[in-house]
């Protein structure tokens, strides 16, 4: 993706037609996807324990990756860490999944 495309997606996420908590969640999904190259199924499979925001990394276990390669630790940009901190502090549901859904413990990859 080109930076202009990412900015256009962020603008849609931050429109007032979405509640604030969804704006924050959607902005983090876009930032993580752009920053790390994670696929939708990997994003929605992330648990809070996989994040080390003090170091600025996300751990990606083998079982989340296509083809089950070795686990990976990916570096995060400072802005992505800042967005994650804000999102996790203010999110509406306290569960293991980074991206919970209203009716289940985590979002499905068709929503990310």
From TrEMBL:
Domain of life: Archaea
Domain Tyr recombinase per the UniProt entry, residue ranges: 1-112
GO biological process: DNA integration; DNA recombination
Gene3D superfamilies: Intergrase catalytic core (1.10.443.10)
Taxonomic source organism: Halarchaeum nitratireducens
Pfam families for this protein: Phage_integrase
Entry keyword annotation includes DNA-binding: no
Molecular function GO terms recorded: DNA binding
InterPro entries according to UniProt: DNA_brk_join_enz (IPR011010), Integrase-like_cat_sf (IPR013762), Integrase_catalytic (IPR002104)
Identification of the protein by name: Tyr recombinase domain-containing protein
Transmembrane segments: none
Keywords noted in UniProt: DNA recombination
């Amino acid at each position: 993706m080109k930076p202009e495309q990412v900015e256009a997606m962020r603008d849609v996420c931050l429109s007032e037609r979405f509640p604030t908590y969804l704006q924050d969640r959607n902005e983090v999904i876009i930032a993580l996807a752009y920053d790390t190259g994670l696929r939708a199924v990997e994003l929605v499979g992330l648990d809070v324990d996989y994040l080390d925001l003090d170091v600025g990394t996300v751990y990606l276990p083998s079982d989340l990756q296509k083809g089950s390669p070795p686990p990976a630790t990916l570096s995060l940009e400072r802005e992505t860490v800042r967005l994650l901190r804000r999102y996790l502090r203010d999110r509406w549901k306290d569960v293991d999944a980074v991206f919970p859904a209203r009716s289940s413990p985590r979002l499905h990859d068709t929503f990310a």
